Amino acid sequence: MLLILEGNNCFKKIIKESNYSKKSVSNVIKKFKDEGLIKYHVNEDKRIKEYELTEKGLRELKIYNRKLNQKIENLEDKHELINNRSFDDKSDRKMKI
Q1: 44 phi, psi to nearest 5 deg
Q2: Claim: this prediction has a pTM higher than 0.70
């Protein structure tokens, strides 16, 4: 969905940018279309489908983005705690010597 949002709106562009097989991309597009997350229209020469996010797709992408950002923040918090503990442990060892 993110590739479509970024303007990679036709099948060939999505394949090129994602580096996935045609079959994989086709399956994902079908699933997203069936779930109402994306829609398409046929361009002027009637050979190329151009995909875009639906309102539902945009909402789902925003929800996913918020969840992903929260997970990143949680990882950063854990990393900070681990670093602080390591620093405290080293300080304790120096004091004991």
Answers
A1: -55, -40
A2: no
